[in-house]
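Lab meeting minutes (informal)
Scribe: AK
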Amino acid sequence: MKRIAAGKIGVFLLLAALTFTFSASAEAELQRFGNIEAYVPEGWTVQATGAQTTFMSPGNVAALSVLVNTATGVTAEEVAIAYSEAHYGTTPEEVDEGTFVFSFQNENGIESHAVVVLLADTDSYMVWVTAGAHPQLGELIESVQLVE
């Protein structure tokens, strides 16, 4: 297993979306979805479709989507621009070398925040998107790992 810069990405997502209250969740269960795994808190639902995995909180008040895909011959900035334009989002900003962020409103009009990062030593990239707020969202973000 390889830990993805989840700490750095998670911290940014937390600051960009809202300030979340971390809660200890003894009921969180480690689950695998394709090439990622995460500790899914009790009551959350998960939908894994192809390269994208979406975690929905109880009551659907918050969500985390993680997409892992290939990006042969493109930069993180090009991927971020394409995703931002597809969602009518803000202009992506580089927050760290090879890491871009932007915001957009999802189909329900909820402010969403995205992070795009190329994975080191691969032709793959990750897109993390958060929407809404829930006390367990931060711990979920921190638990996401890429598995080989």
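Next up, CB showed the second protein from the same session:
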Amino acid sequence: MAHGKAKRTLLGIQGVIGHRTAPDWGFIYNVSTEKNPNYNIGDVVELPNGKGFVYCKSGGACYTGQGNAIYNAIPATGIDYALLAAAAAIGDTSVKMTAVLTHTVDDLRGGTILLKIATGSSNAELQCRGIIGNTAAAPAGTVTIYLDAPLTSALTGASYGYCMPSPYSDIRLPSEGTDTGWLAFVGPAAAYVSATGKYFWCQFKGRVMGLAPSGIGGVTKLGNTQDIREIVWRQDGSVQAREPDSGIDGENGQVAGYIVDNNGLGNGATEYMLTGHV
């Protein structure tokens, strides 16, 4: 088991870098069933041109011309609110919980755990930690979860916790009509991902071209930037102009970014600036 905290790499930021000495970032466009040994899910790479990418694992196909969504949810992939399996002292860097699902080694790494001293304790006493690794466990078995920082309050057998794996461990293109209204978006894949179980990079910020406009007035409204410039993700991963009703039922309320180019003539948006964060 190799415990791992999140890593953020700024390519070409340190020192004086010229055009001929700029680092190669061709690996951003690799898609593979084998994980890159230099990166863990959730690691971020930022390029000198301002583009940001997060390392992901696919739960289905992912497109380069549409936004791809986060599918992880409790209790399908994490451990829902439940009593801890053992006490933990101040300064401990691990906790034990009872597995509901089958856990493989480090399948929760990159995720988050929230710990509550007791049912009646206030929100002032919550402890939120990043997960840097975990042991394997069968359902109803005990899984040890390793934390990115020590506990500052003791936990007992009356304490509760719940946790989620990295949100970037199950990324897919949503299916409109099936997965509508409740998904959060990361952004377009750097390269086409054909199926589940593949490791790839997903762009969350910076300039991008070719995003599909929504079929709901998308082509017209995204083409005239004297009226509309900010864009939101639609539930199918396309983009739509942000309007007063854009967030109805949460279906397309997540801001994607804004249109870069000048389209006063209404000839269709060409380039976008994604303003996401991870």
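CB comment: The chain has two domains: 8-71+172-275, 79-165.
No objections, moving on.
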